[in-house]
Design goal:
Layout: E1 2-4, E2 11-13, H1 27-47, H2 54-61, H3 65-71, H4 75-98, H5 104-124, H6 127-137, H7 142-162, H8 169-190, H9 195-217
Helix pairs in contact: 1-2, 1-6, 4-5, 4-6, 4-7, 5-8, 5-9, 6-7, 7-8, 8-9
InterPro entries: Homeodomain-like_sf, HTH-type_TetR-like_transc_reg, HTH_TetR, TetR_C_22
Region (Disordered): 1-29
Domain HTH tetR-type: 30-90
């Protein structure tokens, strides 16, 4: 935010989130955008987001820098698009695992599976690690992570109600938000650790989350 007090005038501005330009409708242009995003993901996984320049992405994708800017005004827009795609994969994973849950015990087991699947996603898509870090480091992109956590929490709350959990809506919403926030944070911690330590951390969260769920809501 910038405050300009010259001439007794106060002007306030704030950073606006980087947004991709309207995605093309023509098949050839869509394929070009997909190639750009694929190259960007590979470069970020290899070098880290800070070390990747727009010119690197253009060169790798075989497009001119002008063509790249036609679709993405800056690197933040590329990162935003990739982050939203990976987040969508994560949400689909969570919903697939939880959609058929029919009991509180089943939900406790499903949460354990979600932990493993979410961890596996970070391993399958190495760029997600740096993209996640980039979204947290950039104020204009932090809303992506918050929106994703709230989407996970909303689905968990829906499943809790489906299996018969009753109670104050605000309290249940807060509980679901905390569970999913801690789940995501645990997985993101685990990917920074050696494999054996990562597994202990993940297993510890699974035991803790299941125990707390059953203690809080089991009749």
């Amino acid at each position: 935010m910038v405050v300009n007090r010259s001439s007794n005038v106060t002007t306030m501005t704030q950073a606006m989130p980087s947004q991709p330009r309207k995605l093309p409708s023509q098949q050839r242009s869509r394929e070009r955008v997909e190639r750009i995003l694929a190259v960007a993901g590979d470069l970020i996984a290899e070098r880290g987001s800070d070390a990747v320049k727009m010119s690197d992405i253009a060169d790798g994708a075989g497009v001119s820098i002008g063509s790249l800017y036609q679709y993405f005004p800056d690197k933040g827009a590329v990162i935003r698009t990739l982050a939203e795609r990976y987040n969508q994969i994560g949400r689909e994973c969570v919903e697939r695992i939880m959609v058929d849950v029919a009991s509180l015990d089943g939900l406790a087991e499903a949460l354990k599976v979600v932990v493993d699947e979410y961890y596996g996603m970070f391993q399958d898509y190495p760029a997600t690690r740096d993209i996640w870090s980039a979204t947290l480091a950039d104020k204009a992109l932090r809303d992506i992570d918050a929106e994703d956590t709230r989407a996970h929490a909303a689905f968990l709350e829906k499943v809790l109600r489906k299996v018969g959990v009753e109670g104050d809506g605000t309290e249940l919403t807060s509980y679901a938000l905390l569970v999913m926030y801690l789940l995501c944070a645990t997985v993101r911690l685990a990917i920074t650790l050696p494999d054996d330590e990562a597994r202990r951390v993940l297993d510890g969260y699974k035991v803790m989350a299941a125990r707390d769920l059953l203690a809080k809501f089991a009749a």
